[in-house]
Structures are given as C-alpha cells and as structure tokens.
Amino acid sequence: MSLNATYDVIVAGAGHNGLTAAAYLARAGRKVLVVEKNDWIGGAAVSRSLHPGWTYSNCSYVCSLLRREIVRDLDLPKYGLQVIPYEGGATFTRDGDYFAYYSDHHALHREMARHSRRDADAYQRYAQAVMRQCRFIRPFLLRDAPDPASLRPRDLGEMAYLVKKAHGLGPRELGETLRFWTMSIGDFLDEHFENDLIKAHLAGSGIIGTGLGVYSPGTAYVLLHHYMGDIDGGIGAWGFARGGMGAISAAIGADFEAHGGTILKGAGVEKFLTKDGRVTGVALEDGKVFKAPVVASNMDVKRTFLTHVDAGDLPPEFTRAVERFKIRGSSAKLNIALDRMPSFPAAPAHASFLRGDLHVSQSLSELERAYDDWKAGRVSAKPYIDMLIPSQIDPTMAPTGAHMMTVFVQYAPYDLAQGSTRSGVNWDDAARRQLADCVLDQMSVACPDIRERIVHMEVRCPAEIEREVGLTEGNIFQGELTFDQLFFNRPVPGWSQYDSPIKGLYLCGSSAHPGGGVMGAPGANAARAILRADGVRMKGYAA
Amino acid sequence: MTRFDAIVIGAGVNGLVAAALLARRGKKVCLIEAARHAGGMAGLRPGEGPALAHLVHNLSPAVRRDLGLGRDWPFALTPLATVALAEDGRHVVVDGPNAKLADGTAHPFAAAHAALTERLTRYGALLRNMAETAPPGGGMSGIAMMRQGLRFARTGLSLRAMGKPEMRRFLQVLLSNAYDLILDEMSDGPLAGLWTADAVRGAALGPRSPGTVFSLIYRMGHGGIVSRPEGGMEAVIAALEEAGRKAGCTLRTDTRVARILTEGDRVTGVATEAGEILSAQVVLSSAAPLTTARLTGLDHFDIEATRRLRNLRARGTVAKVNLKLARAPALPGVDLASARMVFAPSAEYVETAFNPSKYGEMSEAPVIEAVMPDPGAASPWLSLLVQYAPADLDGGWTAAARDRLAQIATRTLARALPDLPGLVTSAEVMTPDQIGAATGGPGGHWHQAELTFDQMLTLRPGNGMGHYAFGPSGLYLCGAATHPGGDVMGLSGRNAALRALEDRA
Amino acid sequence: MSVMTDPKVGLIPGPVHDRLAALSRSQAWYGWAGYVAPSHLDSMEFEYFALRNQASLFDVSPMHKYRITGPGALAMLNRMVTRDVAKLRAGRVGYTLWCDEEGMVIDDGTLFRLGEDDWRLCCQEPMLDWLMEAAWGFDAKVTDESHDIAGLSLQGPCAFAILEAAGLDVGHLKPFDLAEIEPGLTVSRTGFTGDLGYELWTAWDAAPALWDRLWEAGRHHGLRAIGYDALNLARIEAGFLTAGVDFQPVLSVERLHRGLTPFELNLGHMVHFDKGHFNGRRALIRARNTPRSLLMRLDVEGFKPAPGALIYHRKKREIGHLSSGIWSPTAKCNIALAHVRMPYAAQRPANLWAEIYTLEEGRWATRMVRLTPVKGPFFAPPRAKATPPARL
C-alpha cells in the first residue's frame, strides 16, 4: 500500500458512520483516507472470530435502522450485504409460560388474547400510534437539524419544513406527537395495555442503550428510535446481516475502496492537527502525520474534542458544553458459542419466535428496579436481556449443528461501584464473572441448560467496549438519547450540523444528529455538510 | 331557583381567583365550596397545626393586579433564607443568589450557585410570560388571538434578546434533568441536594427524570424567593376571599355540588346535594377534570376525552407532618425563625429517596422541607413536607404507617438537628390519600396532575382540552390540572376566568 | 436445522370448516379475522346466482361479536354510536356507525337489541378495547363473544322456505326483526345482500348441527354454500359498504387524514344530532356542511369492472376514485361505489370519467369511460321487504 501523506479528507475511525461518510465523499471525487485504531474495521458493527468456527457480532447484533437510501446510494448489496428479517420474539415467564410476538398478525392477536383479550384489541391502537410517529420522524433522519437561533436561509428552510410537517399532522395528532416525544415508555404502555408481561415485552426497546428507566420521561422516543428503521419497507422490522454485523461495515468499506478510498488499519489518532483555528490533518499514535484540509471524526464528541484536540483551540464555552454532554455506559454483552441449540422447555414445537429476540423480564417494575441498580452503580440484579440465536437463520455464524448466541444486557454501569469508589477500573475479572453469572441466571428462565451448552463465551462489560471500540463509557449511541441531547441539541446547541469551532473538523458519528444505532445517517449527513461547505451538492437518495 | 351569571365550583386558590375576577368584571358570581371554609388544598390542615401549604413562592402579581389588590398583597410576606441541612454540620445558608456555609465561610460553589440562580431566574421570567396566558390555539376570538400572538412574539423576542448562545442554551436546559444540570456546576452535597429537591417538590419524579429542570425554572419565575405569609396560608385565602366579597361574589360553603346541569350540550347551572338548583350560563370548576366530567355526566364527553382524563397522572408523593415542639430548635449560626430548612444532603440522596415511591413504598430516608410558621410561639409547630410518601402506599396508609412516617421524618431531620427528637411533644400526619379524600384532588397531588412535558401547555389536562373549555358549551375547568398548574399561584383560575369572559364577549 | 413452519402461525378453522372443506372444489380460501374462509367453493358465478335465484349459505362466524349488558348499556351505546338507539326496541336490529372524537367513522355494524338491557354488536373490526373505553363509567358490561357465538347467513328468495322446511317458524319476522326461535337459536331477518335473508346465531359448537339442519332442509330448494366473492358482488349491488374497502376504519389506519365522516359516506341520515351528545357530535356539527368528498353510486360505461380506477372531471382533473366496482349480472350494468371530491360531487356532474386499464390476452390498454351517477341501490327486489315473506 502506498500512502500519500496529503488527502482531501481524512476520516478518523472506521465505524459504519465513518465509512459511510468516507464512501459518499469518495463517490464525490474526494481523495479520502480512513484511519482506524484497530486492526479491523467496523467500530461497533463487526463480525469477529474469537473462537474457531464461530462468528460473533460482538457489539451491535441486529439490523433495521440502516437507512435504505444509503444502502442504495452505496450499492451495498453489490458488496455482499444481505439483511434477512427475523421472525418475532418472546418473553419467557418464571412459571414456564411465555408471551410470543409473531409477525403474523392473526397469530399475534391470538397470542395476546391468551394473556388479555382486551390487550389483543388494544395492540392495534398502540401499533398505529407508534407507526404514525415513525412516519413522522423518518424524513428528518437524513436532514440537518436546524439551529433555532439562526436566521440563515438554510436553517429557516429546515425550520419551515419542520413547522410544515408538524402543521400537517393536524391539532390532535400534533398533541399526540408532543406527548409521545416527551412521555415514558412505561406510561405509554400503561395507557394501552393491562397485562404486565405484554408491557414488559414491548418496553425493552425503550431502554436499550440508555441511562434511563422505563418510567423516565423521554423513553417512548427511545422506543421509536428502535422502531423507525425498516427492512425492505417493512417499518419496524429487524433482521440479521448475513455473516454478522461486520458485513455492513465490510460492504461500506468495499464501496469506499472501490471508489478510490484508502483505509489504514492499526492507525489510532493521537491528535487532530490545527493551525490558526483550522484543522490541517491528523497525527497518529505511531507518529505518522497525514495532512488534509478536512477531517471527519467518527469518534464521539467527548473523545474528539476533549482528548484529541488542544483545549486552547476551542472556545471554552464549547468545551464546557462538550463536557456536559452525557455519554453513560449502561449496557453489556455476552457472545456465546453453543455446542448445539439450547432447549426452551416452555416453547411449543417448531416455535418460530425462537428465531427472534428473546427476553425474560416479567414486568415494568422489574425493569424499573433494574434501572435503580444501575443508578447505584450495580449490575442489575435482574437485568433486561435481549438474546438472539442468529445461526438458526444464518448458516455462516457457527459450525453445522452448533449455534451462536448474542445476549445484550441492560443495565450494567460503566462506573461500577466497589466499596466507596465508582469507576470503570472496578471491572476486574471477578466483576465480569459476576456479571456473566447474573445474566446466565436470567437466561436460565428461558433455557435452563444454557450453561451446559457453552463452548466459549465472551463477556463484554462497558469498560471493555470503551477500550476496544472507543465508545466513551461503552455507550452504544455515542451519547444519551434524551431530548436535551437530540435534534438541534445534538451534540451541543449551536453545533448540530456536523461542523465544529475548528474549521474543517467535522463529526460524523452517532454523537451527531440523528444519533446512534447502525443507521449510517450521521455519516451521510456529515458527508453532505462537508461537500456543501465546498459548494457541492451531494448526489443520491441521502442528498 | 337562583340565577347567576357564573358559578364557580370549589373555593381553593384557583376557584377564589376565578370567582373574584369574574365578579370584578361585573358578573354575578356564586362560588360553591363543599368544605366549611374556603382554601382548598392550600388551606387544608391535618389538625391543629399549620396548613398543607406553608410557604409561597409563585403567587402571581398578574392575579393580584387583576383582582385589584393594588401594589402589595394585603398580608405580610416574610422572605425566608433557606438552610440546606448537612449531616456533618456544614449547613449551607442560601439567600437568593448568595450561598454560604453556616459558619459564615464561603461556599466552594457560591459562584456556580449565583450563576445558576441568575440564569434560571431569567429563564423563569420567560416561562412566567407563558404561564400568564392560555396555551396557544383553541379557537379563541380574533382579538384574543392577536393579543396572545403578541405575547408569544414578546417571549420570542426576549428569547432572541438573550443572544444566540443563551437562546440555544435555554432550549437545551429547558429539556434536561435537574440532577445533571446541577451536578454539571457543582459537586454533590447539601447545596446540590437543595436545588434538586426544589426541582421535584410535589412531583412523582426524581431529579434524574428528564423534564425536572422545567419545574425548577417554573419555580424560579419570581426569583425563587420563598416567603412565609404572616398569619399563615389562612391570610392568603382570606385576602382572596375578601377580594371576591368586595366585588359582590357570593360564597357558599358547606355546599356540595351533586350535578352540573346541561340542556342540549349547554351548561345551565348546578344542582346541589341539598337539592337546590343554581342556574348560570357559565360554570367554572376547579374540581379535578374527571370529577367535573362525572358531575356533568360522562355521556357529555367524548370517549377519547374520558380516556385522557383517566390517563392523567396524579400520584401525590408528599405528606404533611406537623411536629409540636417544646421549644424552637437551634442551629449555630442560623436564624431558624426566618429560615426554611431543607434536608436533602445530596442530589443522589434525593434520587434514592424517590426510588421506593415507584413501587408504592415510602422513603426510609425522605427529603424534608421544614419551616416554623409561627416561630415566636412558646411551643412552636415545625411544619414539614415529607417526600416521598406515595398516595398508593402498598398495604394502604394505616394509622401505623402514618406513625412510622412521623418517626421516619423526625429521625431523618435528627441527622442534622440532633436535639430535635427530644423537643417533639406531638405529631400530626396527613398523607396524600387523606389530602385527596379531603379535597377531591386526585392522588392528593398538589397540581391535580403531574407537571411533566406530556401534561403541560396545550396537553394539560389532556390533548384537545388545553383551553379551559370542557365538554358542553359554557363549562370550564379552572383548577390546577389546567395550564399552568398549581402551587398557590392562582393563574389557572385567572386564565380560565379570562377565557370564559372572552367567550361571552 | 430445517425450518419447520410454526403451527401457531396462520389461519385457524371456523366452526363449520369441515363442512366447507368437504364442499370446496376450488380450494380458494382467504383469511377473515384469522379464520379460514372460502373465497368461493367452486365458482363465484354459480354461487352468486344461487343467492339471487334460490338460496345461499355463508358462514359469518368470523365477524366480531360483542355483548353489552346492564342498566347503563343503552346510555353507553347511545353515547358511542351516531344514531338514536333508544328508538330501537327489544327484538329489533339496527345498522349503525360510530365515530371518533373528530367525527371520523371507526366502523359500522349491526346492533341487536336482544332484551331491554341486553345488546349484541356485530362488526368487522376488533372493537373490544374501544367498547371497554366507551363503557368506562357506565353501568354496562362488555363481553367479547366473537369466539363463542357462530352465525350462518341464509340469503336468497328461498331462504324462508328453507327455514320452514327446517322446522323454524320465522314468518312473523319483518326486516330487522330478531327472535329466539328455539332455545339457543336466535334468528334475525338481516343480511349483507339486499335480498330476502336471515342470519342464524347459535353457540359456536352448535354451528355444525345447525349447518346440517339447514343443508338438509335446503335439498329441494337449490341451497348452495357460497364464498365471499359472491357475497361481495351482492353487497355492491345492494349498495352496502365494506370497511377497509369503501372506507378506512379510522382506528386502524397508520397514515393521517384517511378518515371519513358519515356525511362523506352518504350516511348522514344515520346521524341523530337531536338525541344528545354522542362521540364526535361536536366535530360532526362543524363538519356537517363541509364534506371533503362524497360517496357516490355510479354506472360505469362499458363492461369492464373498474375497482381502483381514478376519476376525472372533463377527462382532465383528477377528483376521486372507485372503491368498489363490479359487473352486476342481475342489474346488467357495470356498477361502482366511488369517492368524489367536493365540489364536484355535489354538482352531480355529468362529465365524469374513469381511467381504466385493460389486459386482454397479453395486451395492456387504457381508456376513459363515462360515469353516470345512480340514485339508490343497484338492486332492491320487493321480496327483500315483504312480510310474510315469499317462499320462492
């Protein structure tokens, strides 16, 4: 690989958003270098072989949010990306029953009616409300968040678009929208359903990845954040990327390279170089220096500005605002190689929901208590778990007959309490073992033989995710999804359009609007902003 | 049958204000109160001791103006300093923007405290502007709409006048949570505890709950100064009552409304439980929305409307505990006679106190606000607000549970006032369920409905009901469940009365 | 591992599925509220003509059925639906609509007054949640009977004769009357065909026996089991609406502003403003004189049915669409139900055109055909109303 030391744009971090930004820029004819600290690309969208024969999506694990505009613009299927929808899910009870979620409308109605006839009928109203919100929000994902304090034509234009969309809702729906955006998922579910198990099943999406509880205002939006994606137009559907989530990063990376881009692995950024308030390039940890008039950071906003930029280059109030930005670690993961399919005694024969997302949380108050544990710096005694066995559908993930299981855990604090200290340092082996034990106990509610099935297990606590992926505190969204950190407030007020006080230095990761998830939107939006600064209109559906 | 222009149901602060205002505008008004005295929740007393509301901080000057009470309230208001109690004796004395330690030394975060006070007061003034008018929309007359447009334009302009960075910061801070806002500026301790406790007082929320800065800013609408009305809450109520009487308003206490009468989707008056018919084209109810709907007949309301009213969240979390003391307690360096004490040693403490209330349990270590309404008395009352004591306590509020709450309160305060337990000669307890039962306020909640974003402005008390008009023509809500909410402010009653007048104009 | 299909997924058999399966030659099934239901059993045409000429038997059990009982049931229902059901006597059935707070139609259905305080509502959409919301605060109890009560619809000129042959005396039933003819068997003179017909209601488990009894009685009357396709044709002829086709039930649509008021469905006569408040009344008073579009019955020029076709004024301006359209073998015309925007609809315009696509043996073509507004149903035989009813 011959490396030229000068580029049009350098992207720091080969997460899916960094790669997306890079690919759009390369397609626009820019000479782009992506530098990545790890020896692999993908950030939190990776497929890792940590045990021979098995592939782990060891960070993000399911796909829905990836914008279809980006998939088309970057020709991702051409580079092998296949996303296969999965078939529902279930929550198992402690007394040997379950609530199953089916994508088949009638089966779902019958299953809900088994737990509550009224809830079965109420589900339509619930789904309608959520879908309406999805339809409302989706157009905003690939647009800039306007600065409400600005009178620039573009901000006024975006503001006018927002007002027009809101007005188009009509007074009643506008009211419902304002409610939905500000209420808790717990209250929202309580308004629709009577059955604890159904509520617990539906609530999970409202807390995944956040430092909020099911009764914290704003968590209904978090649910929406998990529902607003689609697979082939099926809004809210989730699926597996064939070959694991790394297939997404690999495809974007391949498109980038096919358009002349260069990816340099094992190249961690030490510092963003600046001169006279302008970015001039990056200095790597190994001392190498690459020059470019534009640098896009895929790192989160704290890491970018508090660690890799001289404080003197930033206005102090900007630094303060970045310091105030909340990125809280609240999730952990278990990735498990199984010798064969574990048994789910409660599930009937040929249950399709086993191919979906499985849970064991019994009620909203159990979930809320799990949050209280986290606030106090403890791993939840009864954490919310989201477990899937993608190898049932994807034959590439495990040896024939064996399986791979991904288990997402909410909540696990980054700053684990031990004695009187609360710190990421407290995540020692004993703590990690304790975490795994607690999660395996939870899992046993659904599959009692889980411990016997384990061939290999990777336990990833927040501190580890931070260390390896570079996400501050291991927060999967690069920043809390609370309303003071969304839209024009993301990441900080006045800087919601990917640029920064350092000219030429951009953010292209999930710290920026519209936030986290394997969505690609911040990357595409950042590329658009970078090109716009050059007076160039980006091409494609994401334009 | 007796004819009036307007009938107001419920003589709480908002009902009193609404009735007096209507009467001052020349309407023949009858104010009906089920209890023997006016005063509603603010004036509710658990026994011999002080009333539920023991301080005021948000009494609206707009109300005073509109009731023709002149430049000053006709009762003395003593501004109180606040003592943020500390277990280690390093109490913090807060007087507006000034914070210092009780021993007179500087508080390490005095500057941060002053800046916060200044900023939130400025924001509070903006919100106050919004509180003094009906929420936007709602089919008002052209002139009213213009007037309101101007008001919002003014709010927008004052927002702009702050300058871009401050305007942006406002739009962020408004949406955030008290815990983060405060701890971004100072390390955790009694001062942070005080801020966060004030943000959630009366709410079924903890400081980490998003949206709690909003209620904090609301509180700061008039600078956040807390005042003790001399003569107690009774003096405030008497003043409002007098304003109504002067304007010719009839007050009927001890009168229960059995039904709100209608004819062809119009209100025609009320029937009392005694069987009397009082007729009027306009009825304003400061009773809870669902109670009002039931009095009118649920068949007069749309199904969605009743669903929204049922979903209105109102879980009272504050209990009133009055402690009779052998003598006033003492704290070195602090004049407790003119101070409000708050026991909330840290923001973390406040959040932890909140936890059990979510599951129907009382806090074992609650947040407490304490004042002496009559410090000069030989054996004074110490008036406490104890949070969190949820209305829906598991197992119910039995006598034993109430006793336990009094003990917990005393024990908790003793962590900062060690001599307190020895001074207590008797205790009175009033829990949210009792407050609810006595006043009809759902869940015994101060605001009749939780003040959260999803129950605010046009969404208060429900989507499509945010403009005081309620169901049949001529019926209005004027209680704390409407915009902008309760807290001995009087604005709900005022705004509702103005709206009713406008509709009849 | 091989992927086995989940037995919990998919459609389940209705109460007389065995009988239908034995009769099905075409194996053409569709899903109705989660149940397997026949589109047709051998051919739609023959089934349709049996309905109009002899008699037809159709299983309506998948319909949603709710029982509303208690002293407050009347008040609760009157607050919910748009017509004044206080005027509906015990032993009568009424067609009715109900709206949301904005006056948009949630669904339509038939309301059976089984007794003074005893009602049954039959409708297409699941409604338990809404009914329970509506009943909150009223002294009324709502029970979901959808899977407890079966219904068989016997329609056509020989329907009465067949019931007589089955030993069921229903001669006294006028249209929209109902009576418990035998213990556990209620018969109403109702249907979705605009023809002489009865619906028989019994316990879910008793349905097969009832089916057999009717089947046996119909031997000499040409009774035929039919599927939905024939029924659909008959209901368009009668001018009846189908939820999800001719209007979108407003509680189940995801997209905004898809609701229609009763006035826009030409059902203003079902809205009784003088009965006191009912759901959506205040909105409907405002909307009464400002419909955005109107439902029209149209005769479509030519012979090609045109469901889904767009409607143009003067062949230029797009002003609506056909929601249902079919060739009527009885009226011998090409009929349609259509939504036409205002003000065009009110003007009863002569210059209306539909753009239709035709596929004739591999060749697609488009043409404009003239639309002629029609008053009243396309087919309304006197036998439908005669009491005592005719036997053939």
Assigned CATH superfamily of the largest domain in chain C: Probable tRNA modification gtpase trme, domain 1
Tell me the distance between the termini of chain C. 61 Å
> Percent range for helical residues of chain C?
10-25%
Structural class of chain C: alpha+beta
Separation, N- and C-terminal Cα atoms of chain B: 25 Å
CATH class assignment of the largest domain in chain B: Alpha Beta
* Name given to the CATH architecture of the largest domain in chain B: 3-Layer(bba) Sandwich
Number of strands of chain C: 19
Overall outline of chain B: globular
Named CATH architecture of the largest domain in chain C: 2-Layer Sandwich
Question: Overview of this structure, please?
Answer:
The complex is a heterotrimer of chains A (543), B (505) and C (392). Chain A has helices at residues 16-27, 68-73, 105-115, 117-141, 153-168, 170-182, 185-192, 196-203, 219-227, 246-258, 301-307, 316-324, 364-375, 429-444, 450-453, 462-469, 521-533; strands spanning 9-12, 32-35, 48-51, 54-56, 83-85, 89-92, 98-101, 230-231, 234-235, 239-241, 262-264, 269-275, 278-284, 289-291, 294-297, 331-338, 357-359, 384-388, 403-410, 416-418, 421-423, 454-460, 505-507. Chain A is α/β, with parallel strands linked by helices and 543 residues long. In chain A, strand 6 and strand 7 (98-101) form a beta hairpin. The mean pLDDT of chain A is 96. In chain B, strands 4, 5, 6, 7, 13, 14, 15, 16 and 17 form a nine-stranded mixed beta sheet that branches. A five-stranded parallel beta sheet of chain B has the order 8-3-2-12-18, with helices on one face. In chain B, helix 1 runs parallel beside helix 9 (233-246) and helix 7 (190-200) packs across helix 12. The longest helix of chain B is centred in the first third of the chain and has 22 residues, at 110-131. Chain C is of the alpha+beta class. Chain C has three domains: 17-63 and 147-238, Probable tRNA modification gtpase trme, domain 1 (Gyrase A, domain 2, 2-Layer Sandwich); 64-144, 2-Layer Sandwich (Alpha-Beta Plaits); 292-373, Beta Barrel (Elongation Factor Tu (Ef-tu), domain 3), CATH 2.40.30.110. Helix content of chain C is 18%, strand content 33%. Chain C has eight helices and 19 strands. Chain C is globular, with a radius of gyration of 21 Å. The mean pLDDT of chain C is 96. Chains in contact: A-B, A-C, B-C. At the A-C interface, helix 3, helix 4 and helix 6 of A face helix 4 of C.
